């Protein structure tokens, strides 16, 4: 009989716990920059660029249950033969997310993996639009494995923590 009451109490406690909530509230561009320091001369040269892509994510609480995640991409295209910068694009794509009932590692994973995955198609489109409007051929960013990047960052942080304790 005591076993039945315990099971019923646990079932009631599970029912009282609110379900986790994860919702995208808004997507916006925080900052966008396009520079073509060598134009118009760059358009008279053969287009064989070396393209460097730097990607970064950042998250911060904004209000109760609301978090801002910012995905930043910086792309530098240099002419292969001269190391002359053809263009430089930097975009900060922001997203406001409602997250409730999630804590600890699960919250960090949402902010570091799921949110950037949702923002990536928007930043990809913004990069392409700016590059094309700058007079250059379309540039489609390759897909990004945010889970892999998150795991790699965790491993590096663990290594640094271990190195500082020794």
TrEMBL record:
The keyword Magnesium does not apply. One of its GO terms (biological process) is protein folding. GO terms for cellular component: cytoplasm. Its main location: cytoplasm. Keywords: Chaperone, Cytoplasm, Protein transport, Translocation, Transport. The keyword Acetylation does not apply. InterPro entries: SecB, SecB-like_sf. Pfam families: SecB. It comes from the Bacteria. It is found in: Cytoplasm. GO terms for molecular function: unfolded protein binding. One of the proteins required for the normal export of preproteins out of the cell cytoplasm. It is a molecular chaperone that binds to a subset of precursor proteins, maintaining them in a translocation-competent state. It also specifically binds to its receptor SecA. Belongs to the SecB family. Homotetramer, a dimer of dimers. One homotetramer interacts with 1 SecA dimer. HAMAP family: SecB. NCBIfam families: PRK05751.1-4 (NF004393), secB (TIGR00809). This is Protein-export protein SecB. The gene is secB.
């Amino acid at each position: 009989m005591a076993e039945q009451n315990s099971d019923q109490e646990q079932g009631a406690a599970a029912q009282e716990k609110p379900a986790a909530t994860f919702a995208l509230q808004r997507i916006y561009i925080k900052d966008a920059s396009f520079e073509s320091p060598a134009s118009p001369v760059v358009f008279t040269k053969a287009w064989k660029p070396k393209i460097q892509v730097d990607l970064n994510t950042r998250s911060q609480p904004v209000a109760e249950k609301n978090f801002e995640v910012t995905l930043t991409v910086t792309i530098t295209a240099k002419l292969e033969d001269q190391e002359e910068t053809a263009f430089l694009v930097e975009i900060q794509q922001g997203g406001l997310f409602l997250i409730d009932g999630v804590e600890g590692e699960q919250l960090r994973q949402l902010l570091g993996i799921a949110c950037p995955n949702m923002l990536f198609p928007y930043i990809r489109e913004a990069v392409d639009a700016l590059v094309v409007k700058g007079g250059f051929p379309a540039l489609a960013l390759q897909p990004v494995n945010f889970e892999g990047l998150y795991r790699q960052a965790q491993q590096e942080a663990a290594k640094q923590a271990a190195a500082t304790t020794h």
